[in-house]
Amino acid sequence: MERHITLPLTEELARTLHAGDTVYLTGTIYTSRDAGHKRMCETLERGDPLPFDPKDATIYYVGPTPAKPGQVIGSAGPTTSGRMDAYAPTMMSVGARGMIGKGARLPEVVEAMKKYSGVYFGAIGGAGALLAKCIKKAEIVDYEDLGAEALRRLYVEEMPLVVIIDCQGNNLYEQGRKAYLEQTEGRGEV
Predict the structure, then answer these.
(1) Residues near 3 by beta carbon (within 8 Å), at least 6 away in sequence
(2) Recorded GO terms, molecular function (predicted)?
């Protein structure tokens, strides 16, 4: 199903999304990679507030390149999501709901998604320049010392994504593999 979604990603909205849905996302998202996630989780462990409100937030796992003159941001392709798996359950426990990246997630992350109604969106790796065209505003919120991994607030319009794992734990990677194997076995190709 094709969906045009305006953020924030509330629990009610998250529950309407299903693995395999094509989504065009509009609204405010945040960027962070492993160094930023580590810092955010350490902040939470100390009992200090995060530099943004995580409630119903969507975090894009990206380290964008510097913007060229006249651009809002440089190339902004997804980072491998597994690098954030150690931190994702903690971030969801404080309200973050959406994650954008590429690649598989650990079972612990999927369990946290089911518990906190999280959604994992896949962005196309290697399409960073095209994805950057969807980013209309970009500003550093904190962690500027991390360079490309600084915490940023982005405003995106019609960012093309696919729901890889929905909040029921349905996983497009697993469903696609199963469907392919069933199809090829039926033709005697395996």
Answers:
(1) 16, 17, 21, 22, 23, 24
(2) hydro-lyase activity
Q: Return d(Cα 36, Cα 73) in angstroms, integer.
A: 18
Backbone angles phi, psi at 148, to 5 degrees: -60, -25
Give this prediction's pTM: 0.92
Is the distance from CB of 167 to CB of 117 less than 8 angstroms? Answer: yes
Written as one string, the DSSP assignment of 47-112 is TPPPSS--TT-EEE-B-PPPPPTT-SSS--PBPBGGGGTTTHHHHHHTT--EEEEBS---HHHHHH
CA dihedral (73, 160, 97, 173) positive or negative: negative
Torsion over CA of 122, 124, 127 and 129, rounded to 10 degrees?
-10
128-172 pLDDT per residue, tens: 999 999 999 999 999 999 999 999 999 999 999 999 999 999 999
